[in-house]
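Worked example 2:
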Amino acid sequence: MSKQPAVGTPAPDFTLPGLVLGSPDAVAGERGDYALAEQRGNPLLLVFYPGDETAVCTKQLCSYTSDLDRFTGLGATVWGISPQDLDSHESFARKHRLGFPLLADTERTVAKAYGIAVPGLGLRRSVFLLDGEGTVRWKHVALAGLTFVTTDVLTEQLAALQAG
């Protein structure tokens, strides 16, 4: 397993398939590739979560969707990343009206690159805050994953990043 990228170092680059709901009533989600290298210029929150339709993950992603305007108001984009495939993500996103892209790391290559893969269990619930240049500026990696970082904590970190 790779080591977690340290704060102040470049985030490991990746491209993953993902989808976002165009609208809650759309027939299908908008699918495409999401490349970290193409996401420069604004802060990005990489939200690694263990699984679609699990209790804590559902609560976490619904919370972030409810507060999405707080993240976008600070110029940030949110990407959710888990090992499930796009069909699972689409069903999950539609059922809970999730408002940001969900990326499919089915081989856990990105989780491994970020040092959060757990053999036989999946991945550790984690959030990495990247600046507009792709540098890790803050991170939280849960040991047990039974709780998640609140929007208040994340927006405080985003505000501190913008303040310089």
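The chain has one domain: 45-163. The chain has a mean pLDDT of 93.
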